[in-house]
Amino acid sequence: MSPDSGNKTTRDCLLEVAERLFAQKGYDAVSVREITNTAKCNLASVNYHFGNKKTLYLNVFRERWMLRAQYIRACFEENLAGCGDTSPASVIQSLAEALIKGPLTDEERLFHFQLMIREMTKPTEAFEIVMEETMKPTFEGLEQLFQPYLHESIDEDRTLLNILSIFSMVLYFNFARLPVSKIIGHAYDQRFKDRLVQHIVDFSLSGLPVKEIAR
Amino acid sequence: MSPDSGNKTTRDCLLEVAERLFAQKGYDAVSVREITNTAKCNLASVNYHFGNKKTLYLNVFRERWMLRAQYIRACFEENLAGCGDTSPASVIQSLAEALIKGPLTDEERLFHFQLMIREMTKPTEAFEIVMEETMKPTFEGLEQLFQPYLHESIDEDRTLLNILSIFSMVLYFNFARLPVSKIIGHAYDQRFKDRLVQHIVDFSLSGLPVKEIAR
DNA sequence: GTCTATAGCAGGATAGAC
DNA sequence: GTCTATCCTGCTATAGAC
C-alpha cells in the first residue's frame, strides 16, 4: 500500500516520519517498528530503502536537515538584502528573524534544532554535516560581515566568541521552549517571537564591541 | 563482591556510574547491564536498590544532580560575597565563574549540563526537579539582584529575557564544547575558561540595560 | 545484600512469497 | 517494491539459592 495520504513515495514518507520521531525522542528511543507503523508502511521498508536504521537517520540529515539549513540561510540573506546595509544591527536582526520566525513552520523549526542539539550532545556521523557544511560556513560569513564594524584591537577569537554568544541565544530560545515558557509564562506565539527577536538584537548589539554606540 | 575500589556502597557506585553513562549517552542508549558491568556489580543490584531502571535515573537527579546544583549555587554566593557589592558586573562574574570554573571537576560539570540539556529537549519526571527546585529559584534570585540596577522602564519580562540570555551563553559554552572547540580551535583549558568568563561578563554587561555604562 | 538463571518481550535485520 | 514470517540478539525484571 502507498503510505499516508497521497503522492509521497514510501521513501519520502519514511524520511519525514523518521525526522519527527528522531527529533522528539532521540535515535535510541525510536524503533524501526514505530517509524514504519507511523508512516503506515511495512516493517521491511526501512531496510529496503535505506539498508538499516542508522543510514535512515543519516539520510534524515542529508536530505531533510540540510535542506532546512539552506532555507534558513537563504532567508537570512534575503532579510539582509532587504535592509540595504550590512551593519551589525541589520545582520543580527536578519539572522534572528531567519532563525526564530524564518521560513519554517514552528514544528519544522523545533525538529531542526532538536536534531542539532542531539548531535551536539552526542555526536554521530551526522555531526560532520551539521558542523562542516552548515555552522562553520555560517560563522565564517558572519565574521566577514562583522569585521569592518569592530574595533581594530578585537582579535579573531573574540569575534568568534561574540558570534557564538549570539548563536547560543538563538539556539536556546529555539530548543528550550519548555523551560522558557515556564519561566516567562507565555506561549511561543507571533507576538512573543517578535519580542524575542527584538530582545536578541538589543542584547547582542550593545554587547558587541562596535566602534560607535548605535542606537 | 563489593564494587569498584573501596568504601563506596554498591548503591553509591551505581548512582555514580549511572550518572556518567546517562549523561554521555542518554537514558535509552544505556542498558542496566552496561551500568552494572561498569560498576562491577551484579545485574540484579539495580532492581534491588532502586526497583527499576527509571527510578535509578530519577535518583541520579535527586541524589547527585541536585547536590551539584547546590554546590554551584553556594559557590556563586561565595563569589558574590567576595566581591563586596551586588552590581550586575559582580553578579554576572560570580555566576559565570561558579558555572564555568566552579567547584566541580571538568567531568562533573560536563555530566551536569548534559543531563540538564537532555531534560530540556525531552523532559521526564526529572524535569520538575531541574526546573522547580533549581532554575526557577536561581532566576528569581538573579531578578532580585538585578532589579535595583535596571532602568525603571524595564518590565519583568524583559529582565527575565536578559537573565535567560546570560544563562543561554553559560549553558552553551558548557554543553557545546565540541562545536565550540572546533570553531575556536582551542581546548577547554584553564586559560580558555578564564577568557570565556571574561567574555560572558563583557558581552552580558554591555547588553544589559544598566543605568550607567560601567567600565 | 549478593548472585545466577531465566522468564518474557521488543529490538534490528533478513528470507522469500507475491 | 511490498509484505509476512521469522531469526536471533539483547533488553528489563524477577525468582529463588546462598
Query: Which percent bin holds the helix content of chain A?
Result: over 70%
CATH class label of the domain at 61-209 in chain A? Mainly Alpha
The coarse silhouette of chain A is: elongated
| CATH superfamily grouping of the domain at 61-209 in chain A | Tetracycline Repressor, domain 2
Instruction: Name the quaternary structure.
Output: homodimer
N/C terminus separation of chain A: 60 Å
Classify the secondary structure makeup of chain A into a structural class.
mainly alpha
* Annotated CATH topology of the domain at 61-209 in chain A: Tetracycline Repressor, domain 2
The topology string of helices and strands of chain A comes to: HHHHHHHHHH
Q: Give the amount of beta strand of chain A, in percent.
A: under 5%
Q: What composes the largest sheet of chain A?
A: none
Number of helices of chain A: 10
CATH architecture designation of the domain at 61-209 in chain A: Orthogonal Bundle
The Rg value of chain A, from CA coordinates, equals 19 Å
Mean pLDDT of chain A: 92
Number of strands of chain A: 0
Biggest interchain interface, per-side counts? A-B, 52 and 52 residues
Low-confidence stretches of chain A: 1-5
